[in-house]
Amino acid sequence: MCKTECIGPKKEKQEDEKDTKPKRKRKKKITDVLAASAPKPGCPADLQKLFEDNFTDKRSVIEMEELKLPVCPKWAKLCKNHTEQKSVVMLIVCSSAHRVLDLIKQLTTFKGNAKVLKLFAKHIKVEEQIKLLQKGVTHVGVGTPGRIKALTEQDGLSLKALKYVVLDWNWRDQKLRRMPDIPEVDYTEERDCAECYTLRLDRANSIIDCACTVFFSLSEAFKGDVFMYYGLTNFHQNQRHYMVSRDDAQLVGRQYNLKNPSITCVPFDKYKNGTPIAPCGAIANSLFNDTLQLFYHSDKNTETPVPLLKTDISWFTDRTVKFQNPSPKDNLTAAFAGTARPFYWWKPAYQLSVEENNNGFVNEDLIVWMRQAAFPSFKKLYRQLNRTQEFNDGLPAGNYSVKISYSILSQALSWRNELSHQYVTKLH
To answer: Fewer CB under 10 Å: which end of the chain, C or N?
Structure first.
């Protein structure tokens, strides 16, 4: 009896305490907002207004949740009946180009036989996307607000056949960071570099130094690790004869191949007097050899050199396994004795860098170049930011300039040059 009497009052007390405890307020979710608003028929003007109202400033979400709603119940029938060019049945609007690519991969099962087209600004010109839209029938367009708006304004994308608009509004970049536009500068014959371009029209001027400067600005800071790339257009590293024009045995430091280059390097294997070329082949001969120096201009109109790292820009397996210097490695002048530089180089391989661990065949600029690109327009990593002093957090917003030592190859091989910067967040 005592046990029953003792436990009873205790239980009532716990229940009273539970009743007086304040309840946590439930946060509003996306589905609540959608349920409170009735769907309305739209028109192209509504979509354009939507872009201007919601994508010109910073955006926020209410409460993140996995949104599961039925989408496009008559998708197969709509795709079958869709025959209009320059238009899409479904338009998916994303916050960044990276998200566009991610969503296109996820659409594989859903789209079936439908054609999907990516619509974003990174490395794809508006004119090229207009041609793709005119070429055939596209069912799904996945892109960023700025590019979609540009296509509609230039009549490259028609909204007449549009049935569904999906706004990917509940996705955010890692650590709430959004990807800013990557600044790109085509300096082939632009601005101050036009004089260098004209000078290089005559190959006899190849021994004359020529430098130029281009300017650009960052509207917002690039926080974190920043990488600097050079880009080439109309340069076919994927051409089959070019791809095999190298001697991997020579590049790994074998003494025999150093003095006896492979037949695959012909006609870039030896000089007329029989002196072997190191490194041999068309790939090494066409090495990108413009020199780029980055400067930051503060509010006080001072020019501050931006510290850049030349190392750790190539694949780890390339610089540790596929590329090695010949012996003796502590005296590269002696190691490369009896060989000559490639035809289009200004200096031999053992003078590519003043740093011993970045010289000769293990020079990382050479290693990066020797890994061929799959397409005629490509970008290769040139430098990465050395995060020290005022650049400890990345590149601050403001004005910048790049001083360029212009190369003969830029005109001799008929390619176009550009440089770009981007930042990434490393995940540990």
So the answer is: C
As a whole number of angstroms, the distance between CA 269 and CA 84 comes to 55
pLDDT at residue 66 tops 60: no
Q: So what's the pLDDT on residue 18?
A: 52
- The residues spanned by each domain of the chain are 37-65+74-176, 184-424
pLDDT tens figures, 219-245? 888 888 899 998 888 888 999 999 999
Q: Determine the residue type at 56.
A: T
Give the mean pLDDT of 290-310.
Answer: 89
Place of tokens 């490695």: 329
What is the amino acid identity at position 12?
A: E
Does the domain formed by 37-65+74-176 have CATH 3.40.50.300?
Answer: yes
